[in-house]
Amino acid sequence: MSTLLEVSGVSVTFDGFRAINNLSFQIGPAEMRAIIGPNGAGKTTFMDIVTGKTRPDEGRVLWGEKSQSLTRMSEAKIAQAGIGRKFQRPTVFEDQSVFDNLAMALRKPRGPLAVLWYRPARADAERVHELAAEIGLSDQLSRKSGELSHGQKQWLEIGMLLAQEPRLLLVDEPAAGMTHEEREHTTALLVEAAKTRAVVVVEHDMEFVRRLNCKVTVLHEGAVLAEGSLDHVTANQQVIDVYLGR
Ligand code: ADP
Hints:
This protein is an alpha/beta fold. It has a single domain, classed as 3-Layer(aba) Sandwich (Rossmann fold). Helix content is 36%, strand content 24%. The protein is built from 10 helices and 10 strands. The protein has helices at residues 43-50, 75-81, 98-106, 114-117, 122-135, 150-163, 180-193, 206-212, 230-234, 237-243, and strands at 5-14, 17-27, 32-36, 58-63, 68-69, 83-86, 168-172, 198-202, 215-220, 223-228. Strands 6-7-8-3-9-10 form a 6-stranded mixed β-sheet, with helices on both faces. A 4-stranded antiparallel β-sheet has the order 2-1-4-5, with helices on one face. Strand 9 and strand 10 (223-228) form a beta hairpin. Adenosine-5'-diphosphate is lined by residues 14-15, 17, 19, 37, 39-45.
C-alpha cells in the first residue's frame, strides 16, 4: 500500500522533557486510523507536528507521492498542501447561515477575515449542497449556525474542512459531548470521508473507536506502544498496564 504521510524517528523535547520519543507512524491515502493513549501520551503534540505547529528536534515528516518534507514548512503551507485539522471545539461563524459557512470555506484564504470579502458564486452553491448532503445538514442550510446543536456544529465544521479538499484530515475527539444518535452520524460521516482521503481520529471513547472499525495506534510516552485492530491492541498486556496506570 502506498504511503501518504510518513513520520519517522521524530522526537520533541519541551524544557528537557521528551514529549515525543522516536515516534514513527505511517498512513495510506484512503485510510482511517484511530490514535488512542492515556493523557500525556503525546497525541496532541503528534498532531501539532504534522500540522507544523510544533517543530520536531529530530526525525522526518514526509508527505505525498513526492515525499515532500513538512518539517520546515509553515502551518499555512502545510494546510494548503492538503492537511486539515479539526479541533475539539467547533469554530463556525455563529452569525452566518450554514450555507454561508460552507460557501466561505470553499473560498481561500480561510480565516476570520474571509467573512469580509465573501460573495457567493453560482458554482459554489452546487458544491455547498453536495457538502451539506455529505454532512447531513441539507435541511439546515438557511439556519444560523449559532442555533445548531453541538453535534450539528461539529458536522458543519467537518463540512467546512472537507470544502478545502484535504487529503488528510486530523480530528480531535469528534464524539465528545455527543448523544448516541449524534455519535452514530459522526461515525458514518467519518467513515464516508475516509473512502477518498486519509482520516486520523484521536479519541478516548473506545466504543466510538470500535465503531470506526479501523486500525488503532496506541501512543504512550511519546512513542507507539501497539498497533493493530482494537481487539488486538486492547489484549496487549503493556497497553492494559498503561491504561490501568501500572
Ligand atoms: P495527549 O494529547 O496525549 O494528552 P500531549 O501531546 O498534550 O498529550 O502532551 C504530551 C506531553 O508533553 C505531556 O506530558 C505534556 O505535559 C507535555 N507538553 C505538551 N506540550 C507542552 C509544552 N508546550 N510545553 C511543555 N510540555 C508540554
